[in-house]
Amino acid sequence: MDGKDVIFTAAGIRRGLAKMSPLALFVIPFGAAFGVAALEQGMEAWAVVVMSATNFAGASQFAVLELWSSEVPLIPLILITFAVNSRHLLMGAALAPWMRPIGWPKTLVTAAVTTDPNFALVTAARQKGERDVGMLLGAGLALYTAWSLGTLLGVGLGSTIGDPRAAGIDVLLPSFFTALLIGLWRGRGSAAPWLVAGVVALLAHHLIPGHWHVVLGGLAGGLVGALRRGA
Amino acid sequence: MALSVDVPTGLLIMALVTYATRIGGFLIMVWIPLSPRVERFLDALSGSVMVALVLPMALSGDLAIKLAIAIAAVTMLITRNVVAAISASLLAAFLLRSLL
User: Fold this and answer.
1) Are the CB atoms for A178 and B69 separated by under 8 Å?
2) I need a labelling partner for A49 at 20 to 30 A (CA). Which of A20, A157, A190, A194 fits?
3) Which helix (H) or strand (E) holds A39?
4) What ipTM is given for this predicted complex?
C-alpha cells in the first residue's frame, strides 16, 4: 500500500468530502458547544472564532478554556495543547510513507486538516487499496468547515443552544472508530498490538493526568507490532 | 512560572503548537529510515492509536455510549458497512436516552 502509485486528485477530494459529510454534520453542534462554552469562559467572540479556525482541534480547545482570561499563562497553554494534540504526531508518522510521493506542499496543507475521523477513515480505506491522498484532504475539509461553522453559530447564538450531547457527537465518535477498527482487523496479527494499546491507554487514562493516554497506548501498540517477527 | 501572554499571542502560540503536532510526524519520518521493523511499527500504530482513542471513551461513557459501541461493532461485523453501523448505534443511543 505504500508505493509510488499514490495520487492526489480533485475526484479524491470530492470523495473525501462526500464520505465525511454525514459525520461532519454532527461536528457542527460540537463546534457550537465550544463557541458557547468559550463565551461563558469570558473569551471575546473574535478570539473564539480565530481559535477554532487556526487550531481545528476540539479536545485541546476545550482543555485550554479554563486557562483563558485577559492574560494566558504560557507554559500551561503550551503543555496542554501539546499533550492533547500529541496523538497527531503518531498519525502523521503513520501516514508519512504513504504520502511521501505527493510532495511537501500538498502534505503541509493536508496535514493541517488531518484529525482523528479522517485519519481513521483513510486508514481503513488504505487497507482496501485507496491510493488517493485527496480523500484525506477532502474529508478533513468537511470536518474543518463543520467545526468552524459550528463555532461561528455557537458564538452568534450563544446559550440559546442546548446540550451538545443531545446531538449525539459523544456517541458518534466512539461508534465510528469502533466500526472502522473492525474493518481494520487483520486477525491474530492485530490482537497483540491492539490489546497492549488498549491496556496501556486505560492505565494512562486513569493514572497519568493530562491526556497522554492516546499517545502512550498508540506507541505501546506500535512497539509490540515492531517486535513481532514476520507478520 | 507565572509567565503570561496576551490573547493574540496566546492564540498564535496555540495554533503553532497544534500545527507542529500535525506536521511533526511527517518530519520525524524524514529522519527515520523505513526498515521492515519501522514499517511494522507504523502498521501497528494506526490501529493502536484508534484503540487508545476509543477504549477510554467506551469505558468512561454512559450506558448509551457503551450500548452504541456494541451495536456499532455487531452491525459492522454483519454488514461491513460503516454508515449502517453508526446509524444503528446512534438510533440505539437515542432510544435508550429517551427511555431513561
Assistant:
1) yes
2) A20
3) helix A10-40
4) 0.90
